[in-house]
Amino acid sequence: MVTSFFEQNELVNFGFKSVGRNVLISRFAQFYGCEKIEIGDNVRIDDFCILSGEIKLHNNIHIGAYCVLFGRNGIEMEDYSGLSPRCTVFSATDDFSGDYLIGPMADSRYTNVQGGKVWLKKYSQIGANCVVMPNVTIAEGAVLGAMSLVKRDLDDWSINSGIPSKFIKPRNRNLTNYL
Fold first, then answer.
1. What is the longest distance spanned by two Cα atoms in the chain?
2. Beta bridge partners of 26
3. Is 69 helix (H, G, I), strand (E, B) or coil?
4. 130-169, pLDDT tens digit by residue?
C-alpha cells in the first residue's frame, strides 16, 4: 500500500548520511545532497519542503509544509525543535550591497556569498512564514512568532517576534517537565 510518506526501505535508497527510526517524509518533499543530510528518530517532514546541503536533524522534530532549508554552511536542529509551515532557513546569502552580482547563475568570481551555520537548540520553535538568516543560533527554548525575520541570536527560553525580531517576554522553562 502506498501512503503519502516514504516507507523506511525507500528512505534508505535516498543515500542520506544517516536516517533514524519512525521517520515520516512526504513523497512531495525534495532533497539535494542527501549524503550530507542526517535525520534522527521521530522526524516528520511535510509536503513541498526542500532540504539542501549540510543538515543535521536530531530527534522528535517536525518540519511543516513548504519549508526550505538551505544548508550550504550547515543547519542543525536539536531535539524537539521545529519549523511551522512556509519557513525559510538560510545558512548562506548573497551580498546585496550593490557591489556584487547576485544569484547562483552568476560567476562566483563576481559574487560575495557569505554565511554561517544556523543552529536551532532543544525545544526551539519557529512560527509560520519566518525567515532565519545565516550564522544565527536560536537558543534552547526560544520561539519566534509568525512572519518574523531573525538576523541575530535569540536568548534561551524567550519569545520573539517582528521584522527584525525583538524580545517580547520570557517563555516558561518548565515545559520540558511534560516530556
1. 54
2. 5
3. strand
4. 999 999 999 999 999 999 999 999 999 999 999 999 999 9
C-alpha cell read off for 134: 545565516
74, 118 contact by CB (below 8 A)? yes
- Please, how many CA atoms are within 13 Å of residue 127, restricted to the half-sphere of its CB? 14
Tell me if 137 sits within 8 A of 89, measured CB to CB: no
- Residue 40 has a CB neighbour count (10 Å cut-off) of 20
- CA–CA gap between residue 117 and residue 110 (Å, rounded): 23
In order, the DSSP letters of 71-102 are: EEEEEEE-TT-EE-TT-EEESEE---SSSS--
Is the whole-model pTM more than 0.90?
A: yes
List the grid coordinates of 167: 524580545
